[in-house]
Amino acid sequence: MELHDSLDLFRALEGLNLLENSPPLWWPSYGTFEVVVGAILTQNTQWSRVQLSLKNLSEAKRLTPQSLSECESEIVMELIRPSGLFKAKAQTLIRLSQAILDDFGGFENFAFLVDRNWLLSQKGIGPETADSILCYACERPVMVVDAYTARLLKAFGYEFDNYHDVQAWCEIGMRGYFDTLELPVRFAWFHGMIVEYMKRNSKGKTANVKLLRCCL
């Protein structure tokens, strides 16, 4: 069968029970500042490496905006070394933590009030990182898309010019079906299911969609 819209894809992925062994909202520590840190650390590296860095930060009690903003960059660099690009990421974490305190007073206000434009204005944060923070840290109805998403849709014959176009396609079918209160959870699951499916069913730049076609 054909893939007509994003709701079709969501339902097909849902039928494969891809998140049965994952945290409830897929990203660990959903709704916390730890997600903000993880979204920055995961840039250009594997999640297993990020977990090592998060463990180091947790043990050093450096997983709050206050504690990170006060930490010397050399200390942060050493704590996040497993994630790679540790110099740039340490600077981003310290700078962003201070900006959160300066502009919002703390994480709770940040999570409630921040918008995408503010995030994108921060050095070191691009569209995917901003949307990951909005979706998984701030619990907003925002769909995160990535290279996995574009690769999966290409296997179904959909090709897009940019990040925004991929995101718009993924959101429109979902917004027409689920109500606003449901969307944060549904978008979190949607992105998580795509990542889990692609980790198991892609090789190089080619996605195997045979399983999904069976669920359409």
Can you walk through the features of this model?
This protein has helices at 6-14, 33-41, 47-59, 65-69, 73-79, 86-104, 107-113, 116-120, 127-137, 147-155, 163-175, 183-201, 210-215, and strands at residues 202-203, 206-207. With 216 residues, it is mostly helical. The protein has two domains: 6-24 and 142-215, Orthogonal Bundle (Endonuclease Iii, domain 2), CATH 1.10.1670.10; 33-137, Orthogonal Bundle (Endonuclease III, domain 1). Strands 1-2 form a two-stranded antiparallel ribbon. The radius of gyration is 18 Å and the shape is globular.
Query: What is the CATH topology of the largest domain?
Result: Endonuclease III, domain 1
Main beta-sheet strand count, sense and barrel state: 2 strands, antiparallel
Would you identify the regions where 5 or more consecutive residues have pLDDT less than 50? none
- Determine the oligomeric state from the structure: single chain
- Termini, distance in Å? 6 Å
Strand content: under 5%
The named CATH superfamily of the largest domain = Hypothetical protein, domain 2
How do the strands of the widest beta sheet line up side by side?
1-2
Structural class: mainly alpha
CATH level 1 name of the largest domain: Mainly Alpha
